[in-house]
Amino acid sequence: MTARIVSAWRLALMATALAASGSAGFAKAQDAGNEITVEAPRSVPIPVERNPYTGAAIATTTVRMSVLYGDLDLTTQRDSDRLMLRIRNVARDACKQLDRLYPLNPDESCVDKTVETSAPLGQAVIAAARGH
């Protein structure tokens, strides 16, 4: 993938969208050219160290997957909808991967939370493509 220089206004728009997402850091997304990285973290028990207050061992594992959109014309509604569908599908795939890694620690709301925090960046990329 070739690196692109992203203008300051586009970065500001994306940062604003991420800040507005308001989710407690469940998933992060970042734009690197024609790619959005969707992150689906999962807290899992580990037998190494324990929380001194509760005795519970806690770690967070994150699965990161990319959503490519260089082939889409985001000025059209059809391709904008495709980008948002791709974000949901990648979030689903990332959460399925976490379920395979940690079958005893499922999170039924993983996909919804991951989409909730990743979708604002997709919307910001669409707005930037449309010149808003």
Automatic annotation (TrEMBL):
Keywords: Signal. InterPro entries: UrcA_uranyl. Residues 1-19 form the signal peptide. NCBIfam families: UrcA_uranyl. This is UrcA family protein.
